[in-house]
Design goal:
By secondary structure, the chain is an alpha/beta fold. About 30% of the residues lie in helices and about 10% in strands. It has one domain (about 10-370): Glycosidases (TIM Barrel). The radius of gyration is 19 Å and the shape is globular.
Length: about 375
């Protein structure tokens, strides 16, 4: 993985598919019957159990879909939603901040968001703000002086033809900090940064040039961003979390995209590795077909994360893996595969997780969840 082979590069592929069927509907408040236990305290990363669902931009903008998702949480152990606040299409929340307005994009916003926040909290659901940081083609378009460049000074583009903002650029950092602070004002109880990484340096693409690098490594830049974010958000009483590639839990050094376990684990409250079994190369952990062994993959990957955290003196719920709730290859994933992944996480010593489905469609996976939230780790 340290060489960033084509197999390892697949780890992030599902992140690029965020559209769900159907267009945003007319604004109205979301609601469902039933209520859960109080939302976990957001200031205690080492004790709070968070078991969540990813809610993409389009689901969040649809009151009908939000009602369905809330009903799923009411009938299961789910107690958190990771909601797109800023993704590859721009902002998904309203704001009067001129900096945010400038970079908002044209994909719409969550209707009646304060009512939605109140509804989620009334149902014991922790709203977590997912913020896509450096793969931000909207901000890149409106801030052409703050993008990754080619040797000739023009904008660098990835294989999709997208420009990325420069991870070394403190003005880009400030924009993302302001998005996070706006989310907290609206009622989000945790901030989750995604695409905390550099784009892959494929040999088939031009060399990436980073203005304002100042001798810093990629890993140092990412860690500095997260440390600065954590400092600002701690004042507001919310957790700072970040998504990383699944193989970061087991690779010794930094990946070419800059992610490395120890530097990032020490400057966040929680790291969320994307340990999807389908994304591991054949033979990983001595397993011939990783996608066919969801329990073993999660157990091996998350056990290593726990071991590394303990060496740093980081204890408690500081690791919260992403769970594969989608199919990629064979076998097709359903409730049993989700249940097996959760069993692997619990046996590795952690209580929390988040299900990822790119279209936020979880109906087929609900039988793999418990009816109520109960501790699973034996202490």
């Amino acid at each position: 993985m340290s060489a960033r082979s084509s197999d390892s590069l697949a780890v992030d592929s599902t992140r690029t598919v965020t559209a769900a069927s159907g267009a945003p509907t007319t604004p109205e408040s979301a609601g469902a019957s039933g209520a859960k236990a109080p939302v976990p305290e957001t200031s205690s990363a080492d004790t709070a159990i968070v078991r969540g669902l990813y809610v993409n931009r389009f689901a969040a903008q649809s009151p009908k879909r939000m009602r369905a998702l809330i009903a799923m949480a009411d009938s299961t152990e789910v107690n958190a939603f990771v909601i797109d606040v800023k993704d590859e299409f721009g902002l998904n929340i309203p704001s009067d901040d001129p900096l945010l307005v400038k970079n908002a994009g044209k994909a719409g916003v969550i209707p009646n968001i304060r009512i939605l926040m109140d509804t989620l909290k009334a149902h014991g659901i922790l709203p977590i703000a997912r913020i896509v940081v450096f793969k931000d083609s909207v901000a890149a378009r409106f801030n052409p002086d703050h993008v990754i460049r080619k040797s000739d000074g023009s904008a660098w583009r990835d294989k999709q033809g997208l420009t990325w903002v420069n991870p070394y650029d403190e003005e880009i950092w400030e924009y993302n900090f302001r998005v996070a602070e706006e989310a907290v004002k609206l009622g989000f109880g945790e901030i989750q940064f995604d695409y905390i990484r550099f784009p892959e340096p494929y040999k088939s693409l031009p060399k990436q040039i980073f203005p304002n690098e100042k001798g810093r490594t990629k890993t140092e830049a990412l860690a500095q961003f997260l440390k600065a974010a954590d400092t600002r958000l701690n004042v507001l009483g919310v957790r700072t979390t970040a998504d990383v590639f699944g193989l970061v839990t087991t690779v010794g050094g930094a990946l070419e995209i800059g992610q490395a376990w120890e530097p990032l684990a020490q400057v966040t409250d929680v790291l969320l590795p994307m340990t999807y079994p389908s994304h591991y190369p054949r033979g990983s952990f001595g397993i011939a077909r990783p996608n066919a062994e969801p329990y073993k993959i999660q157990l091996a990957a998350i056990s290593k994360a726990r071991e590394r955290n303990e060496k740093l003196g980081l204890k408690g719920e500081r690791v919260r893996p992403w769970i594969q709730a989608f199919s990629l290859g064979q076998p097709k994933y359903g409730a049993n595969e989700v249940k097996e992944q959760l069993r692997g996480v619990y046996d590795a010593g952690f209580e929390g997780w988040v299900l990822w489905h790119p279209g936020s469609k979880y109906e087929d996976f609900l039988p793999g969840l418990e009816r109520t939230l109960e501790r699973k780790v034996k202490r």
